[in-house]
Specification:
By secondary structure, the chain is of the alpha/beta class. It has helices spanning 88-95, 130-142, 193-196, 212-224, and strands at 16-27, 30-37, 48-54, 60-66, 76-82, 102-109, 121-126, 149-155, 172-176, 205-210, 232-236. The protein is built from four helices and eleven strands, in the order E-E-E-E-E-H-E-E-H-E-E-H-E-H-E. A hairpin with a 2-residue loop joins strand 1 (16-27) and strand 2 (30-37). It starts with 15 loop residues before the first strand and ends in a 6-residue tail after the last strand. The model is unreliable at 1-9 (pLDDT under 50).
Length: 242
């Protein structure tokens, strides 16, 4: 796969405070935290922030989370976090954090998996891989260019689909692997070449995000559909996948 270094300018990133502005349940064990920053957000869709917690005794724990929100110049970002067993940061965010709490973040980080917002993109996400791809879709819609992206989301059940109705309808295709909603045209089942091939136009960059198993399977299907290796960019998340 393409491992070309990012061409975006490097800059020194520093920690800044982030205030929890709202908390929203997306799916079982998944919540979106909207954070108010002390500095304007300047991320590209696909980038992430590092979130750090510091205990009273000085112990720190940190975790990287993709930005779910589109860049709009405001000093706010949305991070969608899955609660993981024994996950120090995710357990704190889900079980302890409330509106008004102050956290620390550093970012935005990453350039290779970031979408430039002007070139065609095919977005393929499974499980928590929906998060950075949603930022790309939201950006395309906000800039009036939804024609640039085609998105395929693979989730186990309708309850596992994030962001409500945002990930339904054009240009989004949803694949349910275990339980499909009533009236669905496609029965539940694993992602196949027949699902992906019709979305490939040629000349686009494919952004694949999900568990290692999902990402590997999706990349193989994209290659079979004619997408060259150099045009496939992969971001792998933890154990969640479809």
């Amino acid at each position: 796969m393409d491992t070309t270094p990012a061409t975006t300018p490097r800059r020194t990133l520093r920690w800044q405070t982030a205030t929890v502005l709202s908390v929203h349940d997306e799916a079982p064990g998944v919540r979106t935290f909207r954070l108010g920053l002390t500095e304007p957000a300047t991320h590209l869709p696909g980038q992430y922030y590092v979130l750090r917690l510091t205990a009273e005794d000085g112990y720190t724990a940190q975790r990287s989370y993709s930005v779910a929100s589109a860049p709009d110049g405001r000093p706010e970002i949305a991070l969608t976090v899955e609660r993981l067993d024994d996950g120090e940061v995710s357990e704190f965010l889900h079980d302890v954090a409330v509106v008004g709490d102050v956290l620390e973040v550093r970012g935005p980080v990453g350039g290779w998996f970031a979408w430039d917002g002007v070139s065609p993109a095919l977005l393929v996400g499974g499980g928590s891989g929906q998060v950075p791809l949603a930022a790309m879709l939201r950006h395309a819609r906000a800039t009036g260019r939804p024609d640039l992206v085609r998105m395929l989301v693979s989730v186990r059940t309708p309850d596992d689909l994030f962001y409500g109705e945002e990930l339904t309808g054009p240009p989004v295709t949803t694949v349910f692997t275990r339980t499909a909603p009533p009236g669905a045209a496609r029965p539940a089942g694993r992602l196949t070449l027949d699902d992906l091939a019709p979305l490939v136009r040629g000349g686009e960059t494919a952004f694949v995000c999900g568990s290692p198993a999902f990402a590997a399977a999706a990349a193989d299907l994209l290659a079979a559909a004619g997408v060259p290796d150099h045009a496939i960019r992969i971001e792998q998340f933890g154990p969640t996948g479809a």
